[in-house]
Amino acid sequence: MKFQLTILTLAVIALANPQAPPDPTPAPPDSTPPSTSEQPAPPPDPPAPAPPAPPPVPPPADPPADPPAEPSQPPPPPPPPPPPPSQPAPGPPPSGPAPVPPPATPAPAPPPDPNPPPPPSSTAEPPPPEGPICECGYTYCSSVLKDMGMSTTPQ
After folding, report:
1. Can you give the three-state secondary structure of 74-139, one letter per residue?
2. pLDDT at 145
């Protein structure tokens, strides 16, 4: 297991940091002789190239289409027609009670109610009284109520 992890780690490192190919053109030598006391500075490393892009994933292949039928083969015969309704198809005998056939005619609808109920009336507010309306425009004005014989004081 450790061996597999080591190989996997090396593969990841190799893919993550690819090595640059060697430079095909060597650098020209300096015309000045190097001094013996100083070592020449090594050339700076070129920037690391970007890791290569992963290869494009090919689209999934479509399933192969059915090969065309040979024209020399005749089409398959159609299935046999179902038996006519007058001859019931043979089947296993019923194990339970025989089903009851539906009635030939549907049941008649009940006659409409001759005395429909009256529409519901609102008991929250009484209808306006038939009678005089005060000149101020209110039906329940105190002067109108006095004329109708009603008391204006609450009871």
Report:
1. CCCCCCCCCCCCCCCCCCCCCCCCCCCCCCCCCCCCCCCCCCCCCCCCCCCCCCCCCCCCCCCCCC
2. 74
The DSSP output letter for 9 is H
- Point out the residues of the chain with pLDDT beneath 50: none
DSSP calls for 18-68: PPPPPPSSPPPPPSSPPPSSSPPPPPPPPPPPPPPPPPPPPPPPPPPPPPP
- Could you give the CA distance from residue 70 to residue 68 in angstroms, rounded to a whole number? 6
Q: How much is the pLDDT for 124?
A: 59
Give percent above pLDDT 90 in the chain. Answer: 0
